[in-house]
Specification:
The chain is mostly helical. Helix content is 77%, strand content 0%. The chain is built from 11 helices and no strands. Helix 1 crosses helix 10, helix 5 (92-117) packs antiparallel against helix 8 (146-161) and helix 6 (120-128) packs antiparallel against helix 7 (133-144).
């Protein structure tokens, strides 16, 4: 029952690769936005926060359609990118983009919370000693926020691993290219005799999800406990 077929292994490996790459690609943007929201007050800040939360509040299919409109071959951005050979729609890279968009809010929220927990007095002291904003960020804020960054990465990875709606809308289901594990489960449910495959992949999905959430809970508990102690 639990021996995965070649196609199921392919879907699992693709899901893991997509989830991992989505977090790696999102990280620089998440760090920048989290720092901006944590350290700066600027016009339109509320709008930026609202836009950031949209992937969590919109139906995933709507997000996938928006990605198709923007990054499809004839989309507003996709048509321009296609001139340089960069194509997202119906490609595995599009699955990475969809997963990154869906996991981005969780990543930013966790990192921002970590940035907010850093004692500002340390930064002010470094500033009086002549440390630039970049140096203060690299030597003080980032090291003290490591645990929160890891928690955010785990949560974003788990969200990306389980992404379905935006992915299938944006890149469809192409075996070996965009057919991730959630899509494979959905397709097996509609096939005669696919129940055993659904059960196998569901167990795998549960294992990955539990590992991610337990890891985040352990790290998050340590982080929040440290903040209470402070």
């Amino acid at each position: 029952m639990f021996a995965l077929s070649a196609d199921e292994w392919q879907a699992l490996v693709l899901s893991l690769r997509v989830a991992m790459l989505s977090v790696i690609i999102s990280m620089p943007f998440a760090l920048a936005l989290a720092w901006l929201l944590s350290r700066r007050r600027f016009p339109g800040r509320l709008l930026v926060e609202a836009l950031m939360f949209l992937p969590l509040t919109l139906p995933p299919v709507v997000t996938g359609y928006a990605l198709l409109v923007l990054f499809g071959r004839h989309g507003w951005i996709g048509e321009w990118l296609a001139q340089f050979g960069i194509v997202f729609a119906f490609r595995w890279s599009g699955a990475v983009l969809a997963a990154a968009v869906m996991g981005f809010p969780l990543l930013v929220l966790s990192i921002r919370a970590a940035f907010d927990s850093v004692d500002r007095r340390l930064e002010h002291a470094a500033e009086t000693l002549g440390a630039s904003a970049w140096r203060r960020f690299v030597t003080i804020v980032l090291p003290l926020s490591t645990r929160g960054i890891i928690v955010g990465s785990v949560l974003a990875f788990a969200r990306a691993f389980g992404e379905f709606g935006a992915t299938i809308t944006f890149v469809s289901s192409i075996p070996g290219e965009t057919r991730t594990l959630p899509i494979a489960i959905y397709e097996l449910m509609s096939l005669p005799g696919g129940e055993s495959g659904v059960q196998r992949l569901t167990v795998v999905a549960l294992i990955v999800a539990l590992a991610a959430t337990i890891g985040a809970a352990i790290l998050g508990g340590s982080l929040w406990g440290r903040r209470r102690d402070d």
